[in-house]
Amino acid sequence: QQPISEAQLIGRGARYFPFATEEHPDRFKRKFDADLNNELRVLEELHFHSVYDNRYISELTRALIEEGLKDEKEVVRQLKLKESFKASDFYKDGIIYINERIVNDYKDIMSIADMGVKKRNYLHKIATGRGITGALLGEDEKVDVIPDAKQKDVPVNKIERHIVQNALARNPFYTFSSLSRYFPNVKSKLEFIESVDYLAGLEITFQGDPKQLEDLPNVEKLEAISGLLAQIEAEVKQNITEFIGTE
Questions:
Q1: What's the CA angle centered on 166, arms 165 and 171, to 5 degrees?
Q2: pTM of the model
Q3: How far is CA 204 from CA 4, 80, 174, 210, 236, in A?
């Protein structure tokens, strides 16, 4: 099973640090297979050393094929254009227009909704002794009901600012440099918290025992805000477009 495990490790490792260069802007494509002397080629290589070279390497190669990380057999084919096509006006005089791919600066992003965060309510279930983080509520989504549980909607802008700031500080996605990358029109963390286009436009639905809801503990508010931020992060990352095409 060792070659299979290491083949899976190679697959995970290939996804840890995809990178781009000016000449090769596609982060998820190998760049230097035909450029053996490029100093960056080492970033796309893994070296294996084994006492039992032949058997181990052959088993690892087979495992890579089974995992879909390596082609079993490479085939080179030559494709030829038909003479009739080469004689056509399209082939002789046709023009192909290709737009330029440029780095997305997200300058048109004016709210979290513009980055794909459409839902406005986040459910946080309160259980005895701990909070259970739920999910953003949609119109058609069902939520498990706790016996005798009640719900209380709390706008994010009604939660103490220091609690929201604490939750932001716990998540590295919400450093100001990261916020500036995806929300360049946000001038400060405070604006991200207080603007209705961002956090202040959201609500958290707390669900629990009526007595718990009367006086929400700060720890529950912190857990709820943290869950809300994690959900926003996940949705934003699903909608990130690193490059856009020119018109």
A1: 95
A2: 0.57
A3: 45, 62, 19, 16, 19
